[in-house]
Amino acid sequence: MLSVGLFLHDLNFYDGSSEILIAGMQHTRTLQIAIDKQQAWVAKLKGSKRELQEWRRKGKRLLYNMMPRHVAQLLQDGVLANSICESHKLITCLFAYSIGFKDVVQKLKPDQIVESINATVNAFDQCSEHFDVFKVETKADSSYMVVAGIQDRSVGQRRGSTT
């Protein structure tokens, strides 16, 4: 009431105007509280949406790192996992392990160990991309597993097509 320049002694207590004014002010305050709660809820919802998008991005990256791209895409498109079965005439599995890795790392500083592992894995990754093989797993002990013969169908189709 002060914001509009009214005081209690200005109100007529014998008619309904004072009750209407007070009820209107209470209703305004109730609406303001509801608006504030809704704005807080919207802000929380936006944060949850960002978090969900981040988790989806991480999940998608993990999915695409775990399996061939065309299989991951089928799963993303909603195809049931047990209906994705493929037969390949010939595949090759390569298991690479750095012999003496544990002995070597005992002599290196931590940053040198990381650089060594990164260099090894990057070299394997470049070869994997060049020869179109699927990297199945890389471990911290510098072991590496790839499978050849299960090429990405979309890549194979692009290679076979003439544009």
Automatic annotation (TrEMBL):
<feature type="domain" description="Guanylate cyclase">
    <location>
        <begin position="92"/>
        <end position="146"/>
    </location>
</feature>
<keyword id="KW-0547">Nucleotide-binding</keyword>
<dbReference type="Pfam" id="PF07701">
    <property type="entry name" value="HNOBA"/>
</dbReference>
<keyword id="KW-0456">Lyase</keyword>
<dbReference type="GO" id="GO:0019934">
    <property type="term" value="P:cGMP-mediated signaling"/>
</dbReference>
<dbReference type="InterPro" id="IPR001054">
    <property type="entry name" value="A/G_cyclase"/>
</dbReference>
<dbReference type="Pfam" id="PF00211">
    <property type="entry name" value="Guanylate_cyc"/>
</dbReference>
<dbReference type="GO" id="GO:0000166">
    <property type="term" value="F:nucleotide binding"/>
</dbReference>
<dbReference type="GO" id="GO:0004383">
    <property type="term" value="F:guanylate cyclase activity"/>
</dbReference>
<dbReference type="InterPro" id="IPR011645">
    <property type="entry name" value="HNOB_dom_associated"/>
</dbReference>
<dbReference type="InterPro" id="IPR029787">
    <property type="entry name" value="Nucleotide_cyclase"/>
</dbReference>
<dbReference type="GO" id="GO:0008074">
    <property type="term" value="C:guanylate cyclase complex, soluble"/>
</dbReference>
<keyword id="KW-0141">cGMP biosynthesis</keyword>
<protein>
    <recommendedName>
        <fullName>guanylate cyclase</fullName>
        <ecNumber>4.6.1.2</ecNumber>
    </recommendedName>
</protein>
<dbReference type="GO" id="GO:0070482">
    <property type="term" value="P:response to oxygen levels"/>
</dbReference>
